[in-house]
Amino acid sequence: MAEVLHSRKSCAVNPLKSSTPLGAALAYLGMAGSVPLFHGSQGCTSFALVSAVRHFKEAIPLQTTAMDEVATILGGAGNLEEALLNLQKRMKPRFIGIASTALVETRGEDIAGEVRTIVARREELRDTAVVYASTPDYEGALEEGWSKAVTAIIASLVPEDKTSQTDRRQVNVLPGVHQTAGDIEELQALVESFGLFAVVVPDVSGSLDGTVPDQYQPTTAGGTQVEQLADLGRAAHTIAIGQHMRRPAELLRDRTGVPTTIFQTLTGLGPTDALVTLLTQISGRPASLRLRRQRSQLLDAMLDGHFHFGARRVAIAADPDLLCSLAGFFAGMGAEVVTAIAATAGSPLLAEVPADRVMIGDLQDFEDAAKAADAELLVTHAHGRQAAERLHLPLMRVGFPIFDRLGAMHRCMLGYRGTRELIFEVANIALSGLHSHTPEDFADALPPIEETSHAYAPAQRH
């Protein structure tokens, strides 16, 4: 088991984690026709908006209640009500997700009560689903914000009914914040290959995957329909991914009685085999020939790629569930995880990371530890690029944010096919470090050339 340590620094230097409200906003963006609303100052929203736009390369309909100095002292209920009414009038959303910030949480406002009062009093909001999650910046990070938002969606919009008629073809899927649009689409394809269909909550594959509408749309262009939430209790099974999805998954199970399975990761041969076994049991069908072919291709990729993983020293910095998933993948392929830095201590699985120790820290801790451990590969998000330059090491970008590469949301690391692509990506990074030898590479090993006093002169013709 890994020893979990906490950094003792007085401040974060080059922070690893993103804020809790941003995690909640990303979950809200997975709902169709939605607008996430930050209850706080304009500055809080601006930083989150810039991060999301740079990562997704999409228009992000993130709004704010624009708290000022007076509202901060006297209370922000008026700002919240005005913001909700303005959004309904100008943007016509079907879903508004409210995420609180440290500004209003520190003041101690009863935001949940204020939301209930406003929605009950205002007829204009009758046809709009309004959900609130408490997400102060000083508690948790991206995973906690996503988890709290999904929990709030289920608590507010999923009926508490265990008597619904079961549709044996329906499977509920609760993805983690580290699942991309590519991951979700791959998981949906896996489910559909067994004659089932998936209801994904929230579904960012429909809203943050590069949709180009014919005309301007002020809300999200895709995602989970609000009406679909009422049918979650009809599913044959619920699948959740990641330890941070345990709370919403258990809440959904308690409200609907639908059996639930929580996968810590779906990257790797073993986890994907477990998922396929579960889908076989739910559907009563064997795995398709295509899926069996994908498994065979993964085995071949593992055989081809393990030469480039064996004993390779890897340093990883990420949110807890993503860290656990990647560390297990690298260790399973024969690499050694010499540095493991987690953004928060929110997951009990950190002690099971295949490393000597896991530190709760920032990217400065990551750089220092990677240097001390003689790491050969850095694995973190785009803000790790400075450490990679200083240490002269390759950087594999994972997580959020990735703003200096295209296609972050279309990358797939899930299932047989996604794991195979991940193996190839890491192996190609290793191969790119090789080069063709030239005589200069062996100059120090060759004996010196003895100098001679006889100068060369061309032969004279007579």
Write up what this structure looks like.
This protein is an alpha/beta fold and 462 residues long. Among the domains are: 20-139, Rossmann fold (3-Layer(aba) Sandwich), CATH 3.40.50.1980; 302-432, Nitrogenase molybdenum iron protein domain (Rossmann fold, 3-Layer(aba) Sandwich), CATH 3.40.50.1980. Helix content is 40%, strand content 15%. Strand 2, helix 2 (42-56) and strand 3 (63-64) form a beta-alpha-beta unit. Helix 1 crosses helix 7 and helix 12 runs parallel beside helix 16.
How are the elements arranged and paired?
Blueprint: E1 3-6, H1 20-28, E2 34-39, H2 42-56, E3 63-64, H3 69-74, H4 77-90, E4 95-100, H5 102-107, H6 111-121, E5 129-133, H7 142-157, E6 167-174, H8 181-192, E7 197-200, H9 226-229, E8 235-241, H10 246-256, E9 260-263, H11 269-283, H12 289-305, E10 313-318, H13 320-332, E11 336-342, E12 357-360, H14 363-372, E13 377-380, H15 385-391, E14 395-397, H16 415-432
Parallel strand pairs: 1-12, 2-3, 2-4, 4-5, 6-7, 6-8, 8-9, 10-11, 10-13, 11-12, 13-14
Helix pairs in contact: 1-7, 7-10, 12-16
